Amino acid sequence: MSPLLPWLSRRSLRHLHGLGAALGWLAYGLSPSYRRRLNQNAKLAGVGRSDRRAAIADAGKLVAELPRLWLRPADEPIADPVRWEGAELLQEMLARGKGLVLLTPHMGSFEVSAQAYAERFGRAQPITVLYRPARQAWLRELEETARARPALATAPANLSGVRLMMRALRRGETVGLLPDQVPPEGMGVWVPFFGQPAYTMTLAARLVQQTGAAVAILWTERLPKGAGYVVRAKPLPVSLPATADDEAASAGAVNRSMEAVILEKPSQYLWAYHRYKNPRQVQTESPAS
Predict the structure, then answer these.
(1) Which residue ranges make up each domain of the chain?
(2) Contact status, residue 220 vs residue 113, Cβ threshold 8 Å
(3) Distance between alpha carbon 146 and the CA centroid of its chain, in Å?
(4) Which long-range contacts (CB under 8 A, 24 or more apart) does 48-55 make?
(5) pLDDT digits (tens, 9 = 90+) for 91-141
(6) 63 and 134 in contact (C-beta within 8 Å)?
(7) Given 35, 60, 144, 218, which residue has the most CB atoms within 10 angstroms?
(8) DSSP of 135-147, one letter per residue?
(9) pTM for this entry
């Protein structure tokens, strides 16, 4: 690990967000493909110029705050103020005892969302979060170490990870995932996202439909001037079909819910995320015993 990361982890959130905003604009200025994708994706959603400009800086803030979130001791709470809106909704859903699926778009500080849930609710009902391992070995090792915290487990975005999440829900626990992440080939369907076909995971709806779990949106707004975060929980804006018979209808309902949430705060969505790319091929796994 570079000595720069521990040094950054000790800087204030306001300092890191200032640095991150500059890095966001630097990436935007130096990469024509990044700049083109950000603008094209945002315009598809009807996002105006001022929100697009804010999103450029916020993408950099997301990266800059990671050392502070990842490298603190595992038994220490999030160092910066965290305020909740909608915590009572999650409490009601958890009380049903059938498990809870939390859907989080690439928006705001999604790292905080899982950590904040684990701190507030994890002692009673732990959370397992689906993630895609980084390609670089050093970053993959850092992610796995940093994200493993009390009441917060991780599951890789493959068939073994899906099995882990199913088991967690059947124990009455919570799982979290980013449903606007492009899944591997064979694990999604092509449905509209802001009016353009996007390969969309079927897992998000299937977890709910096959287990009877409750489902909610969870996303974390990044406050200005390093003032901390607001974790927002809310019902799914578009109801899922009762069964998974029509995967396109289920995935479409998830996409429309993500669109509604994203447009509440478009300045904090990662518009440069390669949402409309073709899925990657996945290697066949040996059956689990």
Answers:
(1) 4-268
(2) yes
(3) 16
(4) 50/267, 51/266, 51/267, 52/271, 54/267, 54/268, 55/266, 55/267, 55/268, 55/269, 55/270, 55/271
(5) 999 999 999 999 999 999 999 999 999 999 999 999 999 987 767 676 667
(6) no
(7) 218
(8) SSHHHHHHHHHHH
(9) 0.93
